[in-house]
Amino acid sequence: MADAASAFLVRRQRISGWEIGFWLAWLALYAWPGSNLGLLGQVLIWGLFALSLDLVLGYRGVASLGHAAFFGIGAYSAGFLGQAGWTEPISGLLVAGLVAGLVGLLTGRILRRLHGVGLLMVTLGLNLLLYDFVQRSTALTGGDDGLQGITIAPLLGLFRFDMQGHTAYLYTLAVAALVTAGVRALVHSAWGLALLGARDNPRRMTMLGAPVAGDLVWAFGISAAIAGVAGALLTQTTQFVSPEAMSFQRSADLLVILVIGGAAVLYGGFVGALVFVVLRDQLAALNPVYWYFWIGLLLVLIVAFFRGGIVPTVQALLRRWRPAPP
User: Fold this and answer.
1) Which stretch of DSSP H or E encloses residue 121?
2) What's the rounded Cα separation, in Å, for the pair 74 and 247?
3) pLDDT score, position 3
4) Are the CB atoms for 114 and 122 separated by under 8 Å?
């Protein structure tokens, strides 16, 4: 039995060709003439943020209406460090992710006994409390004007964050790829399978002796750390952060992205972020007032024709068309 389980995990952890092609495509976009590197960098940050929520929603089945709180904690942590003179980007990124992760662990301990509407209200309440705090604390956070005086040193002491976004894009791409590889290893491990088991049948997992509540706490902590890294990336690459970073609108947009791309498929958040951010940019340019109407229409079409999201639907079609082995 142990050998069979080990062989199963090895098969799941093999990197497929399309995954390699996925990241090579982002490198190709960097070299593509006329690429909007600023917009593409935003897509990667949103994709990383969506991956953080996918860990608890897709793989553990726990919804959150306040995940932007962890994104904002990471963003403001990186901003405070840059303002205080800690300008080295990589260490600042790690510290921001650690701070958000610790808050996520504390939140997970609160949420582990909650279910349904109560859980949603607690996550929403945390988000609204933090948003109100950073909005009103003008002396500390700058309020609606945002945090001022953020300085970020050149990456590795060599590469400055230029106005064209070359360094910011490659930096964001490298961080997104590394974090995704780490999450991939986690969800394809025995711990990741335990998360899926707790999502599908928590009573049975409890009877088998699995630490269901403890796994939820750690999943929330890791998820919050990833969200914090995404927020810190936004601050470091733009050298600006405002209360909008942890607004409820950001949490709602995050759920929209996962619905579009698909949950529990690892790359669904990146695909959903690409569709959402590019469409938002194009539609807002056409109609700055009613662009969200078309996003709502897109959601209706996704639910009607791409049940589960774009990535799961495409995977199902490929499996259907793939010839059966002899």
Assistant:
1) helix 116-136
2) 14
3) 57
4) yes
Give residue 74's pLDDT band: very low, low, confident or very high (50, 70, 90): very high
Question: pTM here?
Answer: 0.90
How many other CB atoms are there within 10 angstroms of residue 326's CB atom?
3
Q: Evaluate whether 286 touches 272 at the Cβ level (below 8 Å).
A: no
Is residue 61 exposed (0-12), middle (13-18) or buried (19+ Cβ within 10 Å)?
middle
Which of 123, 70, 65 minimizes the C-alpha distance to 97? 70
Please state which of the four CATH numbers 1.10.3470, 2.60.40, 2.20.28, 2.102.10 is assigned to the domain occupying 2-321. Answer: 1.10.3470
Separation CA 231–CA 80 (nearest Å): 13
Contact yes or no for 155/89 (Cβ under 8 A):
yes
Rounded to an integer, what distance in angstroms lies between the CA atom of residue 257 and that of residue 302? 11
Cα–Cα dist 138/143, whole Å: 4
Question: Measured between alpha carbons, how far is 169 from 41 in angstroms, rounded to an integer?
Answer: 5
pLDDT of residue 324: 54
Give the model confidence (pLDDT) of 31-68 as tens digits: 888 888 888 999 999 999 999 999 999 888 888 888 99
Token pair recorded at residue 193: 């399978």
For the chain, what are the domain ranges?
2-321
For residue 172, the Cα-to-chain-centroid distance in whole angstroms is 13
CB under 8 A, 24+ apart: contacts of 172-177: 172/41, 172/44, 172/45, 172/233, 172/237, 173/23, 173/26, 173/27, 173/30, 173/41, 173/44, 175/48, 175/93, 175/229, 175/233, 176/44, 176/45, 176/47, 176/48, 176/270, 177/23
Contact 187, 59 (CB under 8 A): yes
